[in-house]
Amino acid sequence: MMKLPSMGSSLFLVLSLVSAFVSGFGKRLPILSFDEGYSQLFGDDNLVLHRDGKAVHLSLNERTGSGFVSQDLYLHGYFSASIKLPADYTAGVVVAFYMSNGDIFEKNHDEIDFEFLGNIRGKDWRIQTNIYGNGSTGVGREERYNLWFDPADDFHQYSILWTYSQIIFYIDNIPIREFKRTAAMGGDFPSKPMSLYATIWDGSDWATNGGKYRVNYKYAPYVAEFSDLTLHGCTVDPIEFSSKKCDTSSQSLELSATITPSQRSKMDSFRRKHMTYAYCYDQNRYKVPPMECVINPKEAERLKKFDPVTFGGGRRHHGKRHRRIRASQSETDTI
User: Fold this and answer.
1) pLDDT band at residue 335, thresholds of 50, 70 and 90?
2) Full-prediction pTM beyond 0.90?
3) Whole-angstrom Cα distance, residue 69 to residue 226?
4) Where is this region: Disordered (predicted)?
5) Phi and psi angles of residue 6, each rounded to the nearest 5 degrees, phi first
6) Bridge partner residues of 233 (DSSP)
7) 148-179 burial: b if 16+ Cβ within 10 Å, else e
8) Phi-psi bin for 24: left (phi > 0), alpha (psi -120 to 50), beta?
9) Residue 50 main-chain phi, psi, to 5 deg
10) 66-116, pLDDT tens digit by residue?
11) Edge-to-edge strand list for the sheet holding 73-84
12) 3-state SS of the chain: helix, strand, coil percent to 5?
């Protein structure tokens, strides 16, 4: 049972959260130094702090990957980082920015993922989002996308907004995926306190073409750079799972989690141009779409044309390969 907050602190938290989100999703939220909000998870000296702790470099070499974790547990909130990914040959490399409680709930954990999947030289990084609730790992809720920029050239902002009723993923403040809670999902929607994680690791067995291309340590170390780290939400006692902020902050987050018509237009444009996989349309995995899926006929038709075997039950024609042409600057301006 969550403890109710005092009126003074409640009003301040509501006003600060609503003001921050209405003004541009986190632009006015405080940026924490590493020591203020995070602890090293693994990797020894493969984690290096820069700019007085305001930036973190995670590296992967033959010995180990590396990662960090938030010092607090959160029940709902806004979590963000500016990330620059490794360049050149990155096949098999996985960089992850995600929420999880797998260390506490081993058999029924929740998870909200941004995963960046490396590629061979000359091919672009791919980004994957995924959601698990109550240990529902048997139902993969992945979506995968290409990007309209090279994420190894510069920093870009990746954000997760998690409320009681929905989860929204953002890239550079553009919503790319909206996942709504439904009654039919029950506990499959993430609903338990989670920590924020950032990691880099060797995913050779699956990350690039199903494991066809593996990490080549000739190009190591692979370094992922993180800055502008934002943790803003309801902190929870790790023993009692109670908080004086949760009721109030959850209400204010719900008020802020509305996608405006302009944002929705940009999200639709992104998904139309850059989405390459969505579990709801995968007819090989799910003869009947999972219960939370809302089928968009235009998305279904586009994905069917992109990959008729996965999304339409057709036959793959040999000699033809799908490849993405990078969006022109005029296209990116309209995303």
Assistant:
1) low
2) no
3) 13
4) 312-335
5) -70, 160
6) 77
7) beebbeebbbbbbbbbeebbbbbbeebbbbbb
8) left
9) -135, 165
10) 999 999 999 999 999 999 999 999 999 999 999 999 999 999 999 999 999
11) 47-50, 55-60, 222-236, 73-84, 156-162, 166-171, 174-180
12) 25, 30, 45
74, β-bridge pairs: 194, 235
331 catalytic residue (yes or no)? no
What pLDDT, in 10s, does the model give residues 182-235?
Answer: 988 888 999 999 999 999 999 999 999 999 999 999 999 999 999 999 999 989
DSSP 8-class letter at 194: B
- Exactly one of 36, 62, 111, 142 is catalytic; name it: 111
Residue 246 three-state SS: helix
Q: Is residue 292 flagged as an active site residue?
A: no
Contact 101, 73 (CB under 8 A): yes
Q: Under 8 Å CB-to-CB from 287, ≥6 apart: which residues?
A: none
DSSP 148-162: SS-TTTS-EEEEEEE
* Sequence-distant contacts of 168-171: CB under 8 A, at least 24 apart: 168/257, 168/259, 169/114, 169/129, 170/25, 170/80, 171/127, 171/147, 171/270
The DSSP code for 206 is T
Q: Look-up: residue for tokens 């590296």?
A: 59
